[in-house]
Amino acid sequence: MDSITAHQLTKRYDETLALDSLDLSIPDGSVYGFLGPNGAGKSTTMRLLTGLATPTSGEATVAGVPTTDRSQLIDHIGLLPEEPPIHDELTAREQLTYAAGLRELSEPQPRIQQLLDRVALAEDADTRIDTYSTGMRQKTAFLQAVLHEPDVLFLDEPTSGLDPRAARTIREFIDELSDGGTTIFLSTHILPVVDEHADTVGVLSDGKLVAEGAPAELKRRVDAESSDKSLEDVFLEVTETAPDEEL
Ligand SMILES: Nc1ncnc2c1ncn2[C@@H]1O[C@H](COP(=O)(O)OP(=O)(O)OP(=O)(O)O)[C@@H](O)[C@H]1O
């Protein structure tokens, strides 16, 4: 079965066509790497798929639930947005307890402790978030997204700005969740992360899906003659801009 489907999903903001007729079929338990230049429409897609924005036309389902039915949807999804909703004046444990309360999870403390241990945050769990490093904040936000064991996890730049150790912890956790059957929708500009983790990669450019396939398949498509093409080559080729548009 597909965990994420989209059919002609479109979002227009006044003059801007942020997402243009997106079709997706993402199987249960897979990792989908979502790439695209700045302004391509990736965040818009995430907002539509998580019910935070309504499409101008077209439709989508996540875990079998129409994305317009946000009250049903939220039990099934976890979201790590670019700017996570965490409160600086709380500690990580308080933040996670608060999130568990919003989701009405019963007896969440053993799960919270297990998650804090899992990402090596237990020692600092009772210190205020405003004293945390970027990595510690991001780990807190990540735990908040997975606390309720969602079927489908949406991650927007989960490892950007993190040092190698914190990034490794998050990446290993992503692998573990994927092995456990969680479907993962991963948007990032860090191409090696996508190369390593994604079963399928989709590349968005100007609101349109311009390439989709397994990483190895996309690399072959860019240049069948050469075996050392990277996802970066794929990205640059399929999102090519006119010279005067380049920075
Ligand atoms: N709320 C909004 N109102 C008006 N225009 C918007 C809104 N949100 C996004 N847009 C426009 O839609 C287009 C797609 O933006 P979006 O943020 O989805 O891109 P992105 O791929 O996530 O970019 P980035 O990699 O920089 O985060 C852009 O032209 C953006 O200016």
Automatic annotation (TrEMBL):
Gene3D superfamilies: P-loop containing nucleotide triphosphate hydrolases (3.40.50.300). CDD domains: ABC_DR_subfamily_A. It comes from the Archaea. Signal peptide: none annotated. Coiled coil: none annotated. Keywords: ATP-binding, Nucleotide-binding, Transport. This is ABC transporter ATP-binding protein. It comes from Halosegnis longus. The lineage of its organism: Archaea, Methanobacteriati, Methanobacteriota, Stenosarchaea group, Halobacteria.
